[in-house]
Amino acid sequence: NWTSGMLKMFTLLTYKLLVIPTNFLVRSQFALVVVHMQLVLQFAKDEGITLGGAHSAQVLLARDTRPTGEYLLDVATKGISAIVGSVALDMGILTTPQLHWMVRNKNRGLKASEADYFTQITESFRHLLELTPDDKGIDELNEKLIVDGANGIGGLKLEQIKPNLARLDILVRNSGKEGEGILNERCGADFVQKEKVLPLGFGPNDVGVRCASFDGDADRLVYFHVTSPSKTSVDLVDGDKILSLFVLFIREQLDIINGKDNKGLLPTRFGVVQTAYANGASTEFLKNLGLEVVFTSTGVKYLHKKALEYDIGVYFEANGHGTVLFNDDFVSRLESLTARLSEAAGSPQKQAALRLLATSQLINQAVGDAISGMLLVEAVLQHKRWSFQNWCDLYTDLPSKQLKVKVKDRTAIVTTDAERKVCQPSGLQELIDKEVVNYSHGRCFVRPSGTEDVVRVYAEASTVEAAESLAKSVARHVERILGFC
Ligand SMILES: CC(=O)N[C@H]1[C@@H](OP(=O)(O)O)O[C@H](CO)[C@@H](O)[C@@H]1O
């Protein structure tokens, strides 16, 4: 259908525009215009969209603060305008998730400006805080929050809305202001999650303060704590633990409305979606809550699609990219239930239903969004009166190790079972299985990267040394069978 097709096309184009690397600029402008034309045309073909028909297709474009942005915007605009029936709209300087939110809202006939985005997330955040119960005991949560903006656009946007956020004292570092530092360099969510060390600008004075880290275009979020004044290592709260926090909160509201048997006023299909990179301890934690946990291939396009199958679907990659999706019919049922419960305004069920509605407004349902995700984390911590440590203690991550192996042809590896098993080349999976059985809590898989010319090896075990040793042994098998290069 036209709307969903256009939504996907916008998403593809906006994504492409924001991720085209600088070295692309050495190519001629003409070549880039052609690339954009080809993208639009291929997408229209794949999705069965008639261009040049009665409706013109609007393609929303935005850019970040890098100097290459204006040039890329210009060529993208020319590429789009070269196609009959498509119009390029420049939405300005935005985070990736803001742009996706605008596309989604436009396709739904809703208000879609940046001011509307800010109003929606600040208002729903305020609403969620107002719905915080007052019977949860001592407030262990510190209002202070330091955010590493990765020198990207997210920090600048957060600075804009900071004054409108109650009960939060936010300090933005690596804020993206000119001269403060280079995008994603020794800072940002990817750096903190992979290296598990402090980003630039953080140090001994931050011990004990809750910290969050965005990535450069603000679609990933992780949290961390500085453990001691003498160490650069951090206590990390990754995407899996953010997911677990959201799941606990939503489940609590559903239990209030439906009772533990899910047979009450609003029977709900609640699904949790992870990838093979989710820490095994998080999956066990979620399964022990009695939840349906499903796995997809790596990449948010797979997770998002799966999460759409539920009334409420929560998905996250361990790297901090994820969100919560509420099915439209479910939201209608939730709204009617809230209206029906209006007689008993202060009833726990009504309060829980209102919390779910506010959550559906606060979280960006187009794509993972560091700003809206962070506000939901903050609202849930306030709701639970939880300190950072309470959150960390939900479960203990199993030690893990990731390695990259350069091989002659990474596509020689074919996987199945959400990339957790190798089916080609034959014999490799058996070798992995033989290694894994030697390790307590051992788990290991290999897959060809979709973004780099490498095979990724992931291993988990009960100690850091064991995880490293397992990863290395399996990497050696991969090198031997596929040919190291
Ligand atoms: C292990 C890992 O972090 N993989 C990343 C990486 O994909 P690969 O296919 O593993 O290269 O880039 C993807 C796009 O950013 C992201 O969605 C995914 O999580």
TrEMBL record:
Domain (Phosphoacetylglucosamine mutase AMG1) ranges: 112-222, 238-386
One Pfam family it belongs to: AMG1_II
Record-level Gene Ontology MF annotations: phosphoacetylglucosamine mutase activity
Keyword Transcription: no
Matching SUPFAM superfamilies: Phosphoglucomutase, C-terminal domain, Phosphoglucomutase, first 3 domains
GO biological process terms held by the UniProt record: carbohydrate metabolic process; UDP-N-acetylglucosamine biosynthetic process
Domain Alpha-D-phosphohexomutase C-terminal: residue ranges: 404-476
Keywords, sorted A to Z: Phosphoprotein
Domain of life where this protein originates: Eukaryota
InterPro entries: A-D-PHexomutase_a/b/a-I/II/III (IPR016055), A-D-PHexomutase_C (IPR005843), A-D-PHexomutase_C_sf (IPR036900), AMG1_II (IPR049023), AMG1_III (IPR049022), PAGM (IPR016657)
Protein name: Phosphoacetylglucosamine mutase
